[in-house]
Specification:
Blueprint lengths: L1 H34 L6 H5 L10 H6 L3 H32 L4 H16 L2 H12 L5 H7 L12 H29 L3 H9 L4 H12 L1 H16 L3 H6 L11 H11 L3 H31 L1
Helix pairs in contact: 4-8, 4-11, 5-8, 8-11, 11-14, 13-14
Amino acid sequence: MSTMKKKWTPFLFIGPAVLLLIIFSFLPIIVAFGISFTDTNLIGLANWTQINFVGFDNYLELFSDQKFMQSMANTFVYVIIGVPLAVGSSFFIAFFINLVGQKLASTFRVIYYIPSVTNIVAIAVVWGFLYNQEYGLFNYLLSLVDIGRVPWLEDPFVAKLSLILMAVWKSNGISMLIFLAALQSIPRVYYEAADIDGANRWQKLIKITLPSMSFATFFVTVTTLIGWLQFFEEPFVMTDGGPLNGTNSIALFIYQEGFQYNEFGYGAAASFILFAIIIVATLIQFKFRKSDQTL
């Protein structure tokens, strides 16, 4: 009897967590996948007999939907520009914080981490003022050097860059802490040996620091890429996808279709296209990671 108890004890501990994971994660995914093959809307939720199976029509319609295709293109712009900026800036912040004294480093860690835990609505209020075309601080500073007003949130392409800048500033904190922990875990003996060999700071950065942080860089890059593919909060609170759908992302498109227009089947289909893109992007990064390790 005691053997049976020992056998089932681990399952009793992990059982509640697994049950919650199944109910609130896996089950909704399965249901959403089924809904993506139907024309479910508010009428269908009220009367299930009004729900019709449409097969792959939702998926095919998405690829002929100009708004969705533009949202996908916008998302790729966010990823291509935002991911390198976010990863690179958080690394350099961590690198320079690691060079200063302990008290100063603690102060800067707090300063750079605060935006990551600040409510997005509060951030939107502040950055909305900074980006205001008539009275914003950025345009005021530009006017001091005789540069005309920049339509930070009024021009589609400039608005994308503005959202990227705000998102990079907001997201630096968490990645910076990961990089900082990785930097502080590098044994000092490596640098001491490099000093004896006459290596300069650039050589130590290239030959010691970056290779020693490969796993941290990989982790930050993967999580940052996934986050930018799911880019939602910034365009939602700052531009609502405008102007002219110029800042809409796939995640915001899914929200609009599912919760504003109540086209749940259509929105679910878009969500699984985004899911497929994230899976493919992640697998590609893991493939590159394995190829680097074999070299």
